[in-house]
Amino acid sequence: MEHSIPPSITVAAMQQHERLAVVELLHAQELRHAALDPRLRAPRTREELASLLSTLSPNGYGALVARDQQGLVRGAVIPALWELAAESMLLAFLTPRNGITQLLTLPNPQEDAETVTSALLLAALSHGWRELHTTGDLIRWPSTDPWIARALLAHGFLLDSVCALHPAGPLRAAPRAIPTMVRIREARPQDEAALVSLYEEELRYHEARIPFARLSPAALSGFQAKLTSLWDSGALLLGAPLVLVAEQQGQVVGMAENTLLDVSADEEPGFTPPGRYACIDNVCVREQVRGQGIGRLLVQAVFEAFAPLQLAGYVLWYNPGNPLAAFFWPHLGFVPLWTTYQRLHEIS
To answer: Which partner for 338 in 20, 58, 163, 278 could form a disulfide, CB atoms 3.0-4.6 Å apart?
Structure first.
């Protein structure tokens, strides 16, 4: 679908004298988001934002600003590229060269936010992402500020994934009896074939339901490489995953793959406040035994395994298009923090 930049907004490269206006808009946006969701990273000072803007866009290069008819700055964005490694597990859900935004800055939604968003998206695509030869585009936005979805959907984006957070502490009590004939233990090298088969089954499930998901050989290779790091070192604090398996009648019927995530105060894009988190990368259960509470049993074991580490919380990404995940994770107390929208490019 062809669009044109709204006549009330012009978009061009940021000028040096416009930095202060961008910083003011960005500061107001961070204050507004923090008021909507205190779990987000604390708002940065104007000085911190000015320094970051200078670092990401030296001399204004690469930054685009939207101006209204009076020449006032109404928004800003820095188009950027996120290129995935050849054997990244994320290739099951993302493209090799993803257009992303840095410091996407928009006005209050009660003002002209949708018009500004539309103008910036078009400019970012024509002047930034296309020049970077991206194969898809990603926009992430706080889940408690959902107005942006309407503007993104109008430009071909679709709901992609949700980053959800669970506070440190125990998992909420199970509403029903958990299975007793299932044993949870740490994965062993002899489990590798079963684990890869489980992961492949999960990808096939997603592929049938989510437009961006695909059974990627590169993702399977990435998963096997991750298992190799576990077999070689097994040290969670050194970057190896914690992989737990659910065993029923001697067969591996489920797994939970997890890593430690350390977030520093100056880290970008800063999904969460600084601290150490347990990142639940993947939980899957064989189709024939779903609905018996095995998934919850695995998550309970994950919480127990990480409890001694004094975490800031538990974080994960799930696809709302997956009906199992869309029910399972909120039911366990994981609350959406960030929402990601994705757009694939048409192949010409």
So the answer is: 163
Judged by DSSP in three states, 319 sits in coil
**Per-residue tokens: 60:** 């204004």
- Distance between CA atoms of 312 and 261, rounded to whole angstroms? 10
Taking the C-alpha atoms of residue 117 and residue 201, their distance in angstroms, rounded to an integer, is 38
Sequence-ordered list of residues with C-beta below 8 angstroms from that of 191, at least 6 positions apart, any chain: 245, 252
Q: Is the peptide bond before 269 cis (omega within 30 degrees of 0)?
A: yes
From the list 118, 93, 157, the residue with the least C-alpha distance to 345 is 157
d(CA 263, CA 69) in angstroms, rounded, equals 41
Which tens digit of pLDDT belongs to each residue from 153-172? Answer: 988 899 999 999 999 988 88
Question: Token pair of 140, please?
Answer: 């992430």
CA distance linking residue 102 with residue 36, whole number of Å: 21
Please give the structure tokens belonging to residue 96: 């090799």
Listed residue (244, 253, 195) closest to 224, CA to CA: 195
Which CATH class for the 10-156 domain?
A: alpha beta
Q: Are 147 and 181 in contact (CB under 8 A)?
A: no
Q: Which residues belong to CATH 3.40.630.30 in the chain?
A: 10-156, 166-339
Amino acid identity at 58: P
Confidence label for 2 from pLDDT (cuts 50, 70 and 90): very low
- Give this prediction's pTM: 0.92
List all residues 6 or more positions away from 82 whose beta carbon is below 8 Å from its beta carbon: 97, 98, 99, 100, 138
The model's pLDDT over 270-329, given as tens digits with 9 standing for 90+, comes to 778 889 999 999 999 999 999 889 999 999 999 999 999 989 999 999 999 999 999 999
Amino acid at 291: G
60: left (phi over 0), alpha (psi -120 to 50) or beta: left
* 333 HSE (CA, 13 A, CB side): 16
Residue entry with tokens 């050849």: 86
Fold of 166-339: Aminopeptidase (3.40.630)
* Contact of 36 with 43, CB cutoff 8 Å: no
Residue 184 backbone dihedrals phi, psi, to 5 degrees: -105, 130
- According to the model, what pLDDT value does residue 178 have? 67
